Amino acid sequence: MDDVVQVVTTIDSEDTAKGLVRDAVARRLAACGQVDGPVTSAYWWDGTVETATEWRATFRTTADRAGELQTWLIERHPYEVPEVLVSPVTDGNPGYLAWVRSEVG
After folding, report:
1. Where are the beta strands (DSSP E) in 1-105?
2. Which residues cross the membrane (predicted)?
């Protein structure tokens, strides 16, 4: 079952997050995606603690397509060092997981 993964990134614009989700699905890099937020992030950057309002974009894809999705996200992301995390899905509705696999081929 761990051939399905979840890919997550955060971004400073709801519209940009929605565009990334829509485009990744249209390109069949992901079967689906969701945008949630706003969330407040705190992080070290250039030697100081920064805070920012961000939106989280979460994608479902297969492990085989995750590298391509990750590269695509990094190339289109406006951040200098974007967060792009890939996590295996170790359990879930078998029908849903089969649907994810079928949509990204």
Report:
1. 4-11, 32-45, 48-62, 84-88
2. none
